[in-house]
């Protein structure tokens, strides 16, 4: 391999590039291709993985809607309830995790919520906040809205730096609030909350919030969507406490983007494309908790070996990183199923009764 410094000749640079990009062929080349305009490019493989998870979420939602409709009609036996919808109950997941640590047993109400949280925390420990940029459907939607913004305005805007820094702290503040509230509960109060009727049908209530959206909820969602059109990743960057938690775990991860200052030609493309607005071109190792491991900076870099993802001391290809993210997530899911830590223990008759009661007088948040 030719070691090319910033003072290297243009001819040497060109031949180095050709040599570096030569190996990818056929479908691999297509898969590792880039999507989007220069400055906003994304790995095609990441886009495909995100889209696959988004479609899975839509299918889970459709099956869950069938389940809720049948439960409301009292049509026992009910259709299968897809436990994967509990991925949308991160607070129940955190409650379950703290309860599990304190009481030694996984709660039977929303075990999948806790298992998904555990798997995603493990993923963050090993492969940074890759859940945010490869799996999370909200992240996918947020990026799609940013693409729409670029289509309309030709670019995404950036919030003034003096405002950006305190706004970024908001998600850590929200995370602190949830953790403080949960850790402040006694073990008995925590278990009582988990087994309360309110938490038992938290999945149905969350779904119905979106189906029966009131004017306030619609205004908030519309506002967040508009801000995401203008500012890339607005929700993830400023408000998502889940992403904040994963970011803190990712600090311990052996995976990180690494820049080789000898090969780097200081073009700055990595800085422009980074969704976390990190100064990649001025770092050797990108260790920030804001880095989602999206690898868009690696995709856009014109010099193959200048930027790469490293796990420990080894450099990985993007497709290896993608395969590892998928494999770890699926292994966690299958492990939870095999060990009976996935499906809840709530019977059909209990669901029907809870939904009947909730329709007469909606269950309120315990403790209020
Ligand atoms: S540093 Fe690279 S991998 Fe990390 S968020 Fe920015 S573009 Fe993505
Ligand atoms: S994209 Fe970043 S790492 Fe790659 S050559 Fe340009 S400045 Fe250097």
Throw out a few tags for this protein.
single chain; 368 residues; mainly alpha; four-stranded antiparallel β-sheet; two-stranded antiparallel ribbon; 6 strands; globular; disordered N terminus; binds iron/sulfur cluster
* Quaternary structure state of the chains depicted: single chain
Strand numbers in spatial order across the main sheet: 4-3-5-6
Question: Which series of helices and strands comes N to C?
Answer: HHEEHHHHHHHHHHHHEHEHEEHH
Give the class from helix and strand content and strand pairing.
Answer: mainly alpha
Point out poorly predicted stretches.
Answer: 1-23
Radius of gyration: 23 Å
Ligand inventory = iron/sulfur cluster
Mean pLDDT: 90
Fraction in beta strands: 5-15%
The number of helical runs is 18
**Number of E-type strands:** 6
> Helix proportion of residues, in percent?
55-70%
Main beta-sheet strand count, sense and barrel state = 4 strands, antiparallel
Cα-to-Cα separation, first versus last residue: 66 Å
- What's the shape? globular
What does this protein look like?
This protein has 368 residues and is mainly alpha-helical. The protein has a domain at 42-253 and 320-360. The chain is 61% helix and 5% strand. The protein is built from 18 helices and 6 strands. It has helices at residues 10-21, 26-31, 44-73, 90-103, 111-127, 130-135, 137-153, 161-183, 187-194, 197-200, 202-211, 215-230, 234-239, 241-250, 269-273, 296-300, 318-338, 348-360; strands at 34-35, 42-43, 255-259, 285-286, 307-311, 314-316. It has a 4-stranded antiparallel sheet with strand order 4-3-5-6. Strands 1-2 form a two-stranded antiparallel sheet. Helix 4 (90-103) packs across helix 5 (111-127), helix 4 crosses helix 9 and helix 5 (111-127) runs antiparallel to helix 17. The radius of gyration is 23 Å and the shape is globular. Residues 1-23 have low confidence and may be disordered. The structure holds iron/sulfur cluster (2 copies). One iron/sulfur cluster binds at residues 259, 264-270, 280-281, 301, 303, 306-307. Residues 257, 273-276, 278, 280, 286, 291-297 line the site of one iron/sulfur cluster.
């Amino acid at each position: 391999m030719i070691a090319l410094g910033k003072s290297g000749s243009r001819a040497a640079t060109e031949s180095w590039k050709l040599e570096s990009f030569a190996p990818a062929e056929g479908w691999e080349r297509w898969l590792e291709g880039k999507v989007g305009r220069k400055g906003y490019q994304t790995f095609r493989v990441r886009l495909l993985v995100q889209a696959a998870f988004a479609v899975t979420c839509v299918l889970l939602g459709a099956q869950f809607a069938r389940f809720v409709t049948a439960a409301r009609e009292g049509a026992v036996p009910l259709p299968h309830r897809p436990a994967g919808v509990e991925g949308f109950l991160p607070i129940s997941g955190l409650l379950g995790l703290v309860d599990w640590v304190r009481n030694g047993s996984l709660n039977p109400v929303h075990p999948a919520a806790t298992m998904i949280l555990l798997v995603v925390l493990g993923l963050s420990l090993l492969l940074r906040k890759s859940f945010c940029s490869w799996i999370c459907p909200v992240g996918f939607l947020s990026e799609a809205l940013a693409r729409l913004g670029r289509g309309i305005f030709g670019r995404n805007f950036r919030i003034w730096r003096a405002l950006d820094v305190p706004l970024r702290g908001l998600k850590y503040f929200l995370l602190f609030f949830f953790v403080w509230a949960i850790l402040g509960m006694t073990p008995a109060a925590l278990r009582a909350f988990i087994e309360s009727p309110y938490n038992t049908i938290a999945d149905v209530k969350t779904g119905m919030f979106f189906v029966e959206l009131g004017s306030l909820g619609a205004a908030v969602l519309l506002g967040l969507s508009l801000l995401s059109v203008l500012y890339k990743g607005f929700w993830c960057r400023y408000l998502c406490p889940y992403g904040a938690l994963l970011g803190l775990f990712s600090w311990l991860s052996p995976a990180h983007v690494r820049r080789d200052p000898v090969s780097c030609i200081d073009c700055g493309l990595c800085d422009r494309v980074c969704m976390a607005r990190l100064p990649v071109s001025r770092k050797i190792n990108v260790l920030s908790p804001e880095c989602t491991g999206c690898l868009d900076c690696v995709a856009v870099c014109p010099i193959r070996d200048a930027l790469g993802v490293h796990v420990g001391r080894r450099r990985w290809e993007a497709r290896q990183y993608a395969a590892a993210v998928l494999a770890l997530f699926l292994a966690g899911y299958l492990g939870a199923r095999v060990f009976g830590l996935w499906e809840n223990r709530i019977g059909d008759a209990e669901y029907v009764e809870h939904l009947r009661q909730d329709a007469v007088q909606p269950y309120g948040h315990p403790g209020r």
